[in-house]
Amino acid sequence: MFSPNQGALPALLPFFISAYDFTYATAASLVFALNLFSSIVQPLFGFLADAAARPWIMAAGTIPAIMSSVLPQQKIKTRA
Known about the structure:
Blueprint: H1 8-19, H2 24-51, H3 56-70
């Protein structure tokens, strides 16, 4: 399972701080919330995956991944 805390979020924190006028407390709260969410969701999905093996889900998961990389990306509007 992908965890945004492993690489994407720390790399994007300077962007969020400058583009959205986040304080360091807000940025830290964002990291904390994602860590907490990840700590709950990942073991839950791991348990469910072990309880009912469905190998086709892995193949079906590649379709949204491919679609998200092929479709045009939406530009983020920032304050000027």
